[in-house]
Amino acid sequence: MADISPAEEVEVKAESGRTTSLWHATVGDMTRTPLPGDARADVCVVGAGIAGLSTAYLLCRAGRHVIVLDDGPIGGGETGRTTAHLSDALDDRYARLERLHGGGGARQAAHSHRSAIDLIERIVVEEGIDCDFAWVDGYLFPPDAEGDTSSAHKELRAELEAAHRAGAPAEMAEAVPYAPFSGKQALHFSRQARFHPLRYLSGLAERFEALGGRIHTGTQVTSVTGGAPVRVETALGGTVLASACVVATNSPISDRVITHTKQAPYRTFAIAAQVPSGSVPDALYWEDADPYIYIRLQPGDGHDWLIVGGEDHKTGQKDDDVARLRRLEEWTRARFPMVERVDHAWSGQVLEPADGPAYIGANPDGSENVYIITGDSGHGMTHGTIGGMLITDLILGRTNPWASLYDPRRITLRASGELAKENLNVAVQYAAWVLPGDVASDEEVPAGEGRVVRRGARMIAVYRDPDGQVHERSAVCTHMGCVVNWNELEKSWDCPCHGSRFDPLGAVLNGPARKPLE
Prior knowledge:
globular; 29% strand; single chain; eight-stranded mixed β-sheet; nine-stranded mixed β-sheet; disordered N terminus; alpha+beta
């Protein structure tokens, strides 16, 4: 395998607003036929990622007739862009969860994430899904630092004590089992796991369909109207009537305002590098730096993939994404000299609730028989699986011990400062209406790129395709009117307010927007 000079940039290819992740590059066809017309079901699930398919599978096993709709392929959203850590070593930290939600809330968080990992393993075993699931250890350690490190060690000790009170499997370790980090004291979390998320979804989809469930991809949902029945309308003209609807679209399209004022969208970045098999211990690694770095292994064909993620920023609020990938590669090569080459680089969307846990439950605007799963908080694989378990219980009328922790209607007074800070950040973004555009005219837009151009009071999203043809759309997000910004890495228009994303020609890639740029 050819060596790549550390000076070389990560090669990034983006088409129609999407880079290709390692997971997308190593699975086959994940599409199904579009919805052919009107349909009826006990439950309609919107979104064919891990949250939607976990919910659909569990409801189907309980005897419900379920239809799943997605505008893209199975796993084509954020599930296909994760680094797929299966962990109850939570990014929100048990000390913080205990402060915001009390000891009971922290214990519910630990129990729910542990239960999600156990359920994934049980499904893998019972259904015979080949997805490289494996139990591994996890290590949380402080960043490289000069001088006094007592503060970092004090924080580790506080997190250890909070994890113990929550029931999470943490112990203090004097070393990490990989040389560059071996001199660091770390929190060791046992029984963490990893898997190939799209192979898991592929298997889950097949088992769901074998139980009588239906999946229709290429079917964009344009509206969800609560009631008895719920009415789900699609861009193709078909309508699904169902006793209940579960909106599992990363950012919920069924709630225009409430949820989006309580969580913030971030872009996170990842690379996949080839390393010799066995050259890095198979574990999950988390460097608690700023920016946060997370690492894992994935078995490949004659080699391992080293997957490194981090360098997060607020969606639509930075224009240095390629540089962030370059920094990830430089960080990786400095600590993993056995890297042979970096073959994949991509980004994904993370939604961060102001108070930590995901929002899973009844749609907060009161829409009858409509449920949402959102707010992955960096743990989309376990939060999505928790969503399937909790929503299934709610629809079936069963009591679930985690319902209050994840309730989308919850108000956490102790997180009010963080909530106010995020909403002030959103308010500032509307200042773009009085600023000049990125460039003065269409002529200044490079081929294959986009720029915002001001024309009087109007803001125009101008994209010049690789052949030089200019395409113009309104630069006003169709969700709540923010001015979008160009994302050079993903070749997309990103909203800096609530994270809606559009392809170069204005089609919706991510909600909460439901309509394309005008």
